[in-house]
Write a structure and sequence with these properties.
The longest helix is centred in the middle third of the chain and has 14 residues, at 73-86. By secondary structure, this protein is α+β, with helices and mostly antiparallel strands. It has a single domain, classed as 2-C-methyl-D-erythritol 2,4-cyclodiphosphate synthase (60s Ribosomal Protein L30, Chain: A, 2-Layer Sandwich), CATH 3.30.1330. α3 (73-86) packs across α4. It has helices spanning 39-51, 57-60, 73-86, 109-120, 138-141, and strands at 2-13, 19-20, 23-24, 30-31, 89-99, 127-132, 145-156. The strands form two sheets. It has a five-stranded mixed sheet. A two-stranded antiparallel ribbon has the order 2-3. Bound molecules: the ligand Nc1ccn([C@@H]2O[C@H](COP(=O)(O)O)[C@@H](O)[C@H]2O)c(=O)n1 and 2C-methyl-D-erythritol 2,4-cyclodiphosphate (CDI).
Length: 160
């Protein structure tokens, strides 16, 4: 059994869609990035790679590679899940938190769980997505960006 953590931050800017956990959340700003900047999925990917001691997201998907320009981060998650599955790593559970002063994430959390679970080929019962503000403090509190943290537990399946 292994655990891994992931953390990511992206800036909020006008003129971009806000994609979190593969859900387009209605808001007047979105996250800036080379990909769709899905900060939640990026944290999940880094937690998975960290647990398996397999590097980090930038190593697997460089942000100067044109093939990842505007890419759906759920697609990157699918690739990482396949990469780990091929090495016999299976998900125990995943817990994540989106750190955003606004918008309110609660109405979209279930769909985020479903999206992440689908790309990983697991049941949504293994996936937890939460949200918190920072009570107005720091970059997230000022609405300059959104952060996400994820932690996963994986185990090696030696029965296949
Ligand atoms: N962007 C957010 C932030 C928070 N929530 C929900 O509100 C609850 C209370 O948040 P606090 O930061 O005041 O502790 C939190 O537990 C979430 O359920 C949200 O939906 N979207
Ligand atoms: C996802 C990748 C690749 O498109 O780019 P970004 O969307 O900029 O995200 P970031 O978390 O800064 O780094 C990982 C990347 O290399």
């Amino acid at each position: 059994m292994r655990v891994g953590i992931g953390y990511d931050v992206h800036s909020l800017v006008v003129g971009r869609p806000l994609i979190l956990g593969g859900v387009e959340v209605p808001y007047h700003m979105g996250l800036l990035g080379h990909s769709d900047a899905d900060v939640l999925v990026h944290a999940v990917i880094d937690a998975l790679l960290g647990a398996a001691c397999c590097g980090d997201i930038g190593e697997h998907f460089p942000d100067n590679d044109p093939q990842y320009s505007g890419v759906s981060s759920l697609m990157l998650l699918k690739k990482v899940s396949a990469y780990l599955n091929n090495r016999l790593w299976r998900l125990g559970n995943l817990d994540a938190v989106v750190i955003a002063q606004a918008p309110r994430i609660a109405p979209y959390k279930e769909q985020m769980r479903i999206n992440i679970a689908r790309e990983m080929g697991v049941t949504p019962e293994l996936i937890s997505v939460k949200a918190t503000t920072t009570e107005g403090l720091g970059f997230a509190g000022r609405g300059e960006g959104i952060a996400a943290q994820a932690i996963v537990c994986i185990y090696q399946d030696n029965n296949c």
